[in-house]
Write a structure and sequence with these properties.
There is one protein chain. The protein is α+β, with helices and mostly antiparallel strands. The protein is built from four helices and three strands. The protein folds into two domains: 55 residues, Arc Repressor Mutant, subunit A; 30 residues. β2 and β3 form a beta hairpin. The radius of gyration is 18 Å and the shape is elongated.
Length: 86
Amino acid sequence: MIMTKEFYSTTEVAHILNISRVSVFRQIKLGKIKAIKIGRNFIISYNDILEALGKSVGSAKKEEIERAIDKAMEDYEGTFRRLSKE
């Protein structure tokens, strides 16, 4: 499916992700898919679909990765230095 729109309905996203519409709602509720509520319906942006597909990394995920790297550097800096000398 070629995606050309900026926003998609939950039905369209279910088709794109090859999951049920109920699963789309469940993932929205869990925060795994970002969605905008319009009245009783949700719309999902093209970029958020790419993130759900694993084809891009969102800003929140980038920040989480950066924090993990910083923590690893704090905790294991000496070990990393010794490993780099081998």
